[in-house]
Amino acid sequence: MKRLAKWRLISLFAILALVLSGCGEPYLSALRPAGEVADIQYDLMKLSTYIMVGVIIVVMVIFAIVFFRYRRKDDRIPKQVEGSHTLEIIWTVIPILLLLILAVPTVAATFKLADVKEMDKEKSDALVINVRSHLYWWDFEYPKQKIVTSQDLVVPTNEKVYFNLKSLDVKHSFWIPAVGGKLDTNTDNVNKFWLIFDEKRANEAGNLFYGKCAELCGPSHALMDFKVKAMTRDQFDAWVTAMQNVKEPKKAETDLAAQGQEIFNKSCIGCHAVTPENKMPDTARVAPNLTNFGERSRVAGILDHNKEELKNWIKDPETYKPGNEMTNKYPNMTDEQLDALAEYLMGLKVQE
Prior knowledge:
- 41% of the residues lie in helices and 18% in strands.
- By secondary structure, the chain is of the alpha+beta class.
- The strands form 3 sheets. Strands 3-2-1-5-8 form a 5-stranded mixed sheet.
- Strand 1 and strand 2 form a beta hairpin.
- Helix 2 (36-69) runs antiparallel to helix 3 and helix 7 (255-267) packs across helix 10.
- The longest helix has 34 residues, at 36-69.
- The termini are far apart.
C-alpha cells in the first residue's frame, strides 16, 4: 500500500508538471518566439528534442525486441557476438552523425548571432543600447541619442537592435525570453549581441515583453525584472525626440506634487536622476533614472504601477526586494510626505 501511495504521488506531480509546462504568456514564453533570434533558438531546441526523442524511441524498440525475442527459455548459452566490427561501426557512426546534425546548425547560428560588426563601425545607423545591470535593477543608455532610462527598455520593431552588456556589481544575465538571449553581464568585460523584435508578434503580445535576470545574483534575483516596449520606428523616433526635449526636471503641476518635488530634491536627487541625458560615468549611477517614471509599466519592476504600491515600495523596499540598496534610505517619512512624493513621481512623464 505504501508503494502504491508513493506511485500515486509521483504520478500526481508528473501530471502537475506537465500542466504547468503549458503555462505561459506571449510576452514571457521562450516557446512563443517573437523575433529572428528567438526563432533560431526555438528551431535549435526543436531539433535537439527531435533527436533525443528519436534516440529514445529507437532504444526502446530495440529493448522490446530483445526482451521478447531473446528471453531465456533454457540453460543454453546464445551465440556470442563480441568483437563484431559491424556492430561497433554502427554504434560509433550513428552518434557521430547525430552530433553533426545538431552541431552544424548550432555552430552556424552561434556565429550568426555573434556578428556585431555593424555596431562597431564608426559611421553606422545601427541602434546601439548600453545595458547596465545593478542589484536589482536595469539601466539602458542610448549613446547616439544621448538619453538614459531605467527598468523600461524601449525598442523599434523589425530591425536589428544591438546591445553592449556590462554589470556594475555582480554577474547578472540579460534575457528577454520571447525575443532571445540570454547573455551574461560581467564586471570585467562587455558582451555584445543583437535582437530583432517582430512587429506582428509584438502586437499580439500587446507590444510589451518581460525581461529577466537569468543568473543567480542574490536574494532578489527572481525579482530582477524589466519591461520591453516594442513599437514602430516612427513611434520610437517620437519617443526619442520627447526624451531629448527634457532638458531640466519636470515641474510639478499641483500643489501636492510641488511638495513632493521639494521632498525629492532634498532626499532623492542624490541618487536618482530626473533628466534623461547621461552626464555621469556608469559607476556614478547608483539608482534608476526616473525621467519618465509616470509612464512605466511597474513599480520596482514587479509591483502594479499606482500610487499605493509606490508608497509601499518607498516605505519598506526590503519587504519586496530583499537585499536591495534602497532599504533604510527613508525610514522616517510620514504618510503625508509619501503622498506628496508619490504624486510628484507619478507625474514624471515625457509623453502624454
